[in-house]
Structures are given as C-alpha cells and as structure tokens.
Amino acid sequence: MPFRLFSLIALLCLSAALHAQSEGPARFQIYGGYAFLSNSFNGVPGSRQPLNGWDAAVAFPSWHRVRFKVDVASYRGTNLGAPQHAVSIMGGVQYTWQFKRESVFVEGLGGDIGLNKNWGAGQAPGGTASFSTLAGGGLDSRLARHVAFRVSGGFQWSNFALIGPAPLLVPYRIAGLPTNFGRISTGLVWQF
C-alpha cells in the first residue's frame, strides 16, 4: 500500500514537471504600445519633424515559428503648417526564435496607409492613401507568464504624392518628399 501511494505521488509530480517543460509558444499575441515615426510625410530636407502615436497588433498561432500578423498604427503631428494624421493597416508574417525568457523576431508586413487630405506644406492637398511596407524586428522580454515587454523597430516605406490644382487633380512629387521612414514601437504583449 505505501509503495502504491508513493508511486502515485511520484507520477503526479513528474507529470506536472514534464508539462511545465513542454509548454509551447503562446497561440495568440495581442500587442499595444507607443509608436514613433522618424519623419513627417511632407518633411522635405530642412523641415523634418517626427510623428508620435500608437501601435496595436494581433499575431495568430504559429506554424514552424511563423505567425500571421495584423498591425494597425496611427501617427499625429504637424510640419510646415500642416497637420499629419496617418493610420496604417498592414498584414504579413513574423518569424520568432525563443531564448528562455526572451523572444527575438523578424517581420515583413504590407498594406495600406492613409493620411488626411491637407497634409502638404501650407495645408496643400495630397493623396490620402498609399501602399506601405514594413521590414523590421524586435525583442519580447517576458515579465509574467502571459505578459511580455516588447521593443521593435524597422524601416517603413510609403509613396504619397501631392495633388495638383483643380480641375486636373494630377498627382505630383516634389524633390525630397520622403518615402522611407524609421519606425520604433514599445509596449506590452499579452500572450494566450
């Protein structure tokens, strides 16, 4: 009888330890935090202002360390007397390596970015939508079982153009209008 009781206790303790060691990566990730964009969309040389905002993302269950990810970011600021109100919605993949409490990832995203109508210098009209891409990566450092702190960054590309006067309304680009941006984001990830 004592041998069977001891065996049962040992089996229960061993199974709990094996389960704790075999815990796989989180199925879903929800991220939210602060975002910084290196330049305003009308930021020609000599007049460049960074934009601040927020970033939110959802990453779906992984398959061989690859996750599908949807990212939404919004930036606000003013440059050359014009408001800059941008919202981007992108989707793509995230590839993750796990190292004990930390995870390192790289990502490639593509999608749409939209701006307010009067974003050009002196509130000149401009295009309100452009294709956008993001190539970057980051680090997740686990704070608790289901919560991690994330720092990420990358290079974002978009191709906005100004709009000519009525009645033609033809898109045009001026020299120095930016297409490449640096992006940094930091916040919390909930993994479940």
Any chance you could write out the topology, listing elements then pairs?
Elements: H1 2-21, E1 29-37, E2 51-59, E3 66-79, E4 82-99, E5 102-114, E6 129-142, E7 147-158, E8 162-163, E9 171-172, E10 180-191
Antiparallel strand pairs: 1-2, 1-10, 2-3, 3-4, 4-5, 5-6, 6-7, 7-10, 8-9
Search tags:
single chain; 192 residues; mainly beta; Porin; 10 strands; 10% helix; elongated
Largest sheet: 8 strands, antiparallel, barrel
Number of strands: 10
| CATH fold label | Porin
What percentage of the residues does DSSP assign to strands (E)? Answer: over 45%
Q: Structural class, from helix and strand content? A: mainly beta
Q: What's the structural domain tally? A: 1
CATH top-level class: Mainly Beta
SSE arrangement, N to C: HEEEEEEEEEE
Helix content: 10-25%
Cα-to-Cα separation, first versus last residue = 41 Å
CATH architecture assignment name? Beta Barrel
